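Entry 14. Two folds queued back to back today. First construct below, sequence then structure tokens.
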Amino acid sequence: MEGISLSLVFLQEWYTGSRSIESNDVNQGTNLGNMPYHTMIENVVLDIEGKLGLQGRNPPRRSICEVPVKIRKRNEDCYSSRTISIGPIHKENHDHQNVENLKWKYAASFLQRCEDAGALKKCSEAILNLSSEVRWCYSCVPITLDPYDLAKTLLVDGCFILELFLRKSEYKEKIKCIEDKDPILDDDMMLRNVQRDLVLLKNQIPLPVLQSLLKIIDPTKRPSWIIGYTPYFFGLVSDSEQVEGRVDISQEIVVEENSSHLLEILHNYYCPRFDTICSEIARSKKSGFLYSAIELSDGGLSFKRASSGGGFLNVVFDKQNKVLELPAFPLGEIENNLMRNFVAFEQCNFARTNHVKAYVKLLGSLIRYTEDIELLKEKQILQLESDCSENILTYFRSICAGIDQKDFYFSDLCEEVDVWGLNFSRSRYWSKFRQGKASIQLWWQNSAASLKTDYFKDMWTTMSVIAAIVLLLLTGIQTFYSVRSYYHH
């Protein structure tokens, strides 16, 4: 604990000491608005070099931003932090200051893993050298921090994430014993909230930052370790899959050059290789199925869960055997946030592919009734934590409402299924009648349950309802006889 405290002191001294450097630098320039002069110069030079191709290598992709209002307004909570704020976008956010000390302690523990006394200095220099590259990743967001404040933010947050990853790997693998109770790993609710917050689009920090820090503190781990462990940390890969070697994330599923941060690593996990996707793009204007899952099932089509090897694009229609294979779609609290942020990531044109929103739109066209959800759940295509089908209906209607038509990879497949579906039009009309009947029955059951809960919960409310009904009947009878006597005369 003494070593950790010492590292924490070093961090705090560097954090406060660099402010004198910052103030001197700012005083030497001119502030325009809230942005220091040297920060503006850095941004201008970086932008011009990138557009003219004057840099020694291609600049990193713009990949991190605040989710646009038109997407965020549909479900604000899914794009906002609950516990942990990461990166410079949240620099002015004071809602989570109670967990800042926790981040600093994790950062100190991470630095303590290295026996080199100059580790903190090396990490600081590495982050400062990445300043221009990092600023390009956030170029869609006005980052007003000068290089020193930006480096401090990225250093603490990056060390926190890496220490959390390492602790969880050691916690599971029993490599070494953690003496004190871990405030995150030993609290299931806290861990789920942190995992949820780390997949938010605006909570990302560039992957080179994490790789540079890991290389300095733990040279025994390759930079690709972060890529390989990320899906495991978020529970997308089980222990058995990793041990048995059925999942080779770092080589087969995730290509390192195509991942710019944690969210994109997970995004690539659900996607095959990029060259496979390019061959899938169709020119048809179809954007979904004409019939729902239960309607297709009534017509004789069977549904089957596809293998996970091809990601979300592994949708196959076997016309001869009347089988439609669909990849599994997880739907828990973390997965809900993950998919929404995937869609936002693609809608902002940051992703190399649009496979997630294409598959979400495809599933949304199949799911129109509660029976559709039950059918897909039975086939293990929808993997739900909750049995509430109504929430899933609302989820798909909400998330599909803002999805554009760009790169819908399943147009030809939808066309083929719809043509096949024309052969069971009689069954389709019967299915419509059955679905209408089921909807009326569901409405009646919900209304009866609501009536019992709200108006017959005790003797007094029951008597009041009965009295109101009697009064309504008497008023109706009186009105009837008044009208009858009028026309009689």
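Second construct, same run, same settings:
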Amino acid sequence: MDCSSGVDGDQLWLLNCLNATLDTNQEIRSSAEQSLRQASGHPGFGVALAKVTINRELPLGLRQISFCLSILLFLKKLSDTYPFFNDV
């Protein structure tokens, strides 16, 4: 299955990073994780993750990783905005 089906050029980088998080090579995996951490601070990152999550043309594993990252990003934004959630 072609991972670039139904995605625009901007999402191709994200798909490559998500794929790299599954690599058995620790250096590649760590680099991808760091890139995703840095990208998470940019506007539109959450929307890009959501688009990957709902794109049924992509492999399920990539969609699941994207969904998990979306949840983590949401929880981080929530705790940054409302610090009392950190106590829960």
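Quick look at the second one. The CA atoms of residues 20 and 29 lie 6 Å apart. The chain is about 65% helix and 0% strand.
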